[in-house]
Amino acid sequence: MDKLKALAVFRRVVELGSFTAAADDLNLSKAAISKNINELEEYLQSPLINRTTRKLHITENGQLYYNQVCNILDNLKHADLSVIEASHTLKGSLKISVPMSLGLIEINPIICAFMDKHPELSVEVVMSDQYIDLIEQGVDIAIRGGAELNNSSLRSRKLVEMKRVLCASPSYLDRTLPLTAPDDLTHHNCLIYSFSSSARRWIFRNPDQNQINEVELTQSRYVVNSGIALRQAAILGQGIALLPDIFVRDQLNTGELVEILPEWHVEKHSLFVIYPYHKEQSQKIRAFIDFVVEHFKNQ
Fold it and tell me: What does the pLDDT look like over 100-135, one tens digit per residue?
């Protein structure tokens, strides 16, 4: 028995649910498919697939074996690729998921610079602030803000902690009540980022005085699912925004926006690069991650 071939056959039979479909997919005869499955079951001394005239049913042992086989075959494939890629120019493709606003402001230029460095590599970029399942969507790398991962099928590496800034336009501040403490925000129109896990609850800390102040926002006339739109609304005098400093650095320098309550700090927003664990040996993925890490290290 060719063990590796038998494992590949078993995987495709389970995935396609048919000996005939697996035979077509692998360019083998149906008899060869049956022979591989029979030899594998005989070797393991356990039925893996129950056959009926109409349908195949994977056994409990078969399901357990299938999960392990997928891991083995995927790891073997990526081990091969890591050697092939290491000895050649980076080629092929990468599918990268990034948040929409951060992607436009910061990440897309990094991706373009990486492509300049590796001209034989093509990149598909998926920009969305919504959660994307990397495995289901076939994504190689995602850049996301948030907490540490609790998904064992993924790996992550922290890129940077981004300070968040409370800010508004001079025109808004000139025509509204003064702000001397976080509680004053309840009398202002605060601009809300709808995808935030704490969209209407902002927590401030004053390290000098060892104080914590939690503010529930009720005077919110503007809610949006885009950081860029939130920044634009703040510039146009619609209210007060809480944004990563990377979003508003230029506007603070030009005076279009003014930082409010700088002595009060909001929890920093961590940015991670995330990838499926079985792809961590890919030279393309490692090269891109190192490139992004180096970019943020030099900022």
Answer: 999 999 999 999 999 999 998 999 999 988 887 887
In this structure, the number of other CB atoms found within 10 A of the CB of residue 292 comes to 22
Note the pLDDT tens digit of each residue in 74-103. Answer: 888 777 766 665 555 788 899 999 999 999
Residue 116 CA to residue 175 CA, distance in Å, equals 48
CATH 3.40.190.290 fits domain 164-267: yes
* Continuous segment of H or E residues that includes residue 291: helix 283-297
Handedness of CA 37, 42, 43, 45 (dihedral sign): positive
CATH topology of domain 92-160+270-297: D-Maltodextrin-Binding Protein; domain 2 (3.40.190)
Q: Which fold has domain 3-86?
A: Arc Repressor Mutant, subunit A (1.10.10)
Same CATH fold assignment for domains 3-86 and 164-267: no
Put simply, whether the predicted model's pTM sits higher than 0.70 gets the answer no
Residues sharing a CB contact under 8 Å with residue 103, sequence separation 6 or more, in sequence order: 125, 127, 143
Q: Tell me the torsion sign for CA atoms 104, 108, 110, 113.
A: negative
199 and 193 in contact (C-beta within 8 Å)?
Answer: yes
